[in-house]
Design a protein that fits this description.
2 copies of one chain form a homodimer. The model of chain A has no long low-confidence stretch (mean pLDDT about 95). Chain A contains 2 helices and 9 strands. By secondary structure, chain A is mainly beta. Chain A has one domain: Hypothetical Protein Pfu-838710-001, CATH 2.40.320.10. In chain A, a hairpin with a 5-residue loop joins strand 4 and strand 5. The longest helix of chain A is centred in the middle third of the chain and has 10 residues. Chains A and B meet through strand 4, strand 5 and helix 1 of A and strand 4, strand 5 and helix 1 of B.
């Protein structure tokens, strides 16, 4: 059972450009209950199920395992609709990996950058294109973005 | 994606006795939402995840796959509590398989028999120990039995 420690930021307008095509992913939620979110994600030919516990500060328990693509496609049909459709770009900055998610569909226009940390007090530097921190703004969780998408804010 | 067609019955008192020890199983729910129940089940060294859609009559869509025992044990900790603890006995009657679940813990005293059918109009005969049908009584679904256990009825 892993612990996910994550911080999330918006981007300053106009400063970041993707260096490549990124990886398009579809994901949906079988449970949006904050005590036990159940996510199904399909990236190309790969699929994963991820179950996360309630967040304490910026940390939470995460259990993730691969599942068959065929099962994932069936499960996505049962998930809360609409699904999350986004392209993930990986950006290395000062030795740390940033994931920049460019949303499509009902969340078109939203771009969010996340950094996963080995511990809550790990120090890191912010790329110049990083804007406001939204780690504690629950509107930006993917499980909320499929219930109240960015286009409806 | 399979379709589960199932009928469920109570037992007449005193007429059925288990022929063997059966298989003890622990199961919990990550989602009790009737549109997408997510069940984790551990039977001995095996573990499964099962996602079921909303029931239409006695039928519903079911997606089931094996998961690692280690993941299942972690997932059970995140499930709604208390977990379902029961012993399943398989009984052949007139060429059909009946599953008799003897519940323990918070559902102690409850015994339910289920038969899974290839189609809704499959004919079958009832063993003499079968009592009242409860296929449409939602109190008897396992996902409800972990929220409102038999001992609290």
């Amino acid at each position: 059972m892993a612990t996910e420690i994550e911080r999330k930021f918006l981007l300053k307008p106009g400063l970041w450009q993707p260096a490549g095509p990124g990886r398009r992913m579809a994901q949906g939620y079988l449970s949006r209950d904050p005590d036990r979110t159940v996510r199904v994600r399909v990236v190309g030919e790969s699929a994963f199920m991820t179950v996360k516990s309630r967040r304490t500060g910026i940390s939470r328990t995460e259990i993730e395992f691969p599942i068959a693509l065929e099962h994932a496609q069936d499960l996505l049909l049962l998930c809360h609709q609409p699904l999350i459709d986004k392209t993930r770009h990986e950006v290395l900055h000062d030795g740390m990996l940033w994931e920049v998610d460019v949303f499509h569909g009902a969340n078109d226009g939203l771009i969010v950058a996340e950094i996963e940390l080995p511990s809550e007090d790990t120090e890191f530097t912010l790329p110049e294109w990083i804007g406001e921190e939204v780690s504690h703004d629950m509107r930006y969780t993917n499980s909320n973005l499929c219930a109240v998408p960015f286009s409806e804010w």
